[in-house]
Every structure is written in structure tokens, then in C-alpha cells.
Amino acid sequence: MTLEESIAHFAKLTPEKPAVISQGQTLSYAGLWERIQEKARQLRDEGLREGQPYAFVTTQDADFIVTYCAVHLCGAVS
User: Fold this and answer.
1) 10 Å Cβ neighbour count for 32?
2) CA-CA distance, 25 to 42, in Å (whole number)?
3) Quick one: which of 34, 37, 39, 40 has its CA closest to 19?
4) Percentage of the chain lying above the pLDDT 70 cut
5) Which of 19, 5, 67 is nearest to 42 (CA)?
6) pLDDT tens profile 1-38
7) Please, which residues have CB within 8 angstroms of residue 33's CB and are 6 or more apart in sequence?
């Protein structure tokens, strides 16, 4: 099971359970999964395709997890 599959699984199983706590903010599994899917749609709209490399700079926060998982959800490589 991939990280993305695990997050999707827990978003269905325990949607309100905290998944990420960063900088005093809590993001539930459902919220995290929604943000990952939104980011994946955005990346696809911008032209990211399966197998393509994608480099990004971020800090250690929820945005890193969202972008990292969204890239993989697109089938690309981060």
C-alpha cells in the first residue's frame, strides 16, 4: 500500500482523525486527502504527466506532504 493509498484509506475510515499537526494547525485525514487531490488536479492542469520528474522547494509543513503525495498521485516522480 502506498502512502497515498493509506491516506485515502484513513480518510474513509477515520475522516476526522488528525493526520498532520504543523505550526499549531491540525489537518484531518479527510482534509489532507482533499488537499492532495486538489493539488494533483492543479499539477495535471499545469501539464504534469505520468513518469515526469517534478522538483519543488518547500518547508517542513503540510504543504510538503500535500505536494509530495499529489505528485505521486499524478504518477510523476518527486
Assistant:
1) 22
2) 23
3) 34
4) 100
5) 67
6) 999 999 999 999 999 999 999 888 899 999 999 999 99
7) 7, 8, 11
Write out 12-69 in H/E/C secondary structure. HHCCCCEEEEECCEEEEHHHHHHHHHHHHHHHHHCCCCCCCECCCCCCCCHHHHHHHH
Q: What are phi and psi of 19, to 5 degrees?
A: -110, -40
What is the rounded distance in angstroms from the CA atom of residue 24 to the CA atom of residue 41? Answer: 27
Counting Cβ atoms within 10 Å, is residue 59 exposed (0-12), middle (13-18) or buried (19+)? exposed
Confidence of residue 59 (pLDDT cuts 50, 70, 90): confident
Note the pTM of the prediction, 2 decimals.
0.93
In this predicted structure, what is the pLDDT of residue 44? Answer: 98
Q: Which residues contact 17 (CB under 8 A, 6 or more apart)?
A: 10, 28, 29
